[in-house]
Amino acid sequence: QKEVEQDPGPLSVPEGAIVSLNCTYSNSAFQYFMWYRQYSRKGPELLMYTYSSGNKEDGRFTAQVDKSSKYISLFIRDSQPSDSATYLCAMGKAGANSKLTFGKGITLSVRP
Amino acid sequence: GAGVSQTPSNKVTEKGKYVELRCDPISGHTALYWYRQSLGQGPEFLIYFQGTGAADDSGLPNDRFFAVRPEGSVSTLKIQRTERGDSAVYLCASSPFQGSSYGYTFGSGTRLTVV
After folding, report:
1. Are residues A102 and B44, on separate chains, in Cβ contact within 8 Å?
2. A-to-B residue pairs, Cβ atoms closer than 8 angstroms
3. Is A49 on the interface with B (CB under 8 A)?
4. B106 vs A44: CB contact, 8 Å cut-off?
5. d(CA A93, nearest CA chain B) in Å
6. Which residue of B has its CA nearest to A8?
7. How many CB atoms lie within 10 A of CB B97?
8. Half-sphere exposure for A63 (CA within 13 Å, toward CB)
9. Per-residue pLDDT tens digits for A26-76
10. How confident is the model at residue B1 (pLDDT cuts 50, 70, 90)?
11. For residues B73 and B52, is the Cβ–Cβ distance under 8 A?
12. Per-residue pLDDT tens for B33-89?
């Protein structure tokens, strides 16, 4: 079993839909949780960063972390065609080790 | 430059050959990372530099892979005796924060194809 599991895709939604993306993890040492967006042939770019259980909102994006269930989510409201990309969850451990462990990624397509 | 620069953007090489992939981080970023992303997968950690030294090389798959950062800026990932299984996108990231998972900026990667 991988340390980080991400819901398989691809996912296709109409413009304006609410999108829910999810990841689970098995290692309690993960303390920092991130969502990255990756466009085709580009590197991942950071969307959301959080280190505690609860919700964090930034514009149309909300990141949710439930450490007791080892479950994180990203919600996208009023989805736009420009949101079409691959979304990767990533996790980091506390301490000096700053490497990230990524999920497999899910490809989202928002239809106009 | 404004972002992390990786060269070449694409590299096709024959099985058994040696390749070098270059990463030019954001100026002033002391932390530098290499990741490998296979098709349909998320990036996997290879090595982390803090300044000139490799602080964590636990992700390098075997001794055919080696990376250097001699002056604490540009880094080169070197792969000897390439195999078809080495085909992937090699991503470099830099960060101004040492020892933190926050603040990564990734480059667009080098797409390596071993034929």
Report:
1. yes
2. 64
3. yes
4. yes
5. 8
6. B40
7. 13
8. 23
9. 999 899 999 999 999 999 999 999 988 899 999 999 999 999 999 999 999
10. low
11. no
12. 999 999 999 999 999 999 899 989 999 999 999 999 999 999 999 999 999 999 999
Question: Which residues neighbour A38 within 8 Å (Cβ) at sequence distance 6 or greater?
Answer: A44, A45, A85, A86, A87, A88, A105
Q: Got the DSSP string for B36-103?
A: EE-TTS--EEEEEEETTEEEE-TT--STTEEEE-TTSS-EEEEE-S--GGG-EEEEEEEESSTT-SS-
Q: Which residue has the tokens 């992303």?
A: B37
pLDDT digits (tens, 9 = 90+) for A63-98: 999 999 999 999 999 999 999 999 999 999 876 568
Query: Of B5, B59, B18, which Cα lies nearest the Cα of B35?
Result: B59
Residue B98 has pLDDT above 80, yes or no: no
What distance in Å separates the CA atoms of residue B76 and residue B21, rounded to the nearest whole number? 5
Using CA atoms, how far apart are residues B8 and A39, in angstroms rounded to an integer?
A: 19
For residue B34, give how far its alpha carbon lies from the nearest alpha carbon of chain A (Å): 10
Beta carbons of B108 and A42 less than 8 angstroms apart? yes
Give A 65-104 residues with CB within 8 A of chain B: 88, 90, 92-93, 95-104
**Mutation test of the interface with chain B: which of A98, A101, A102, choosing the one with the most B Cβ atoms within 10 A?**
A98
Locate A38 and state its tokens. Answer: 């990756």
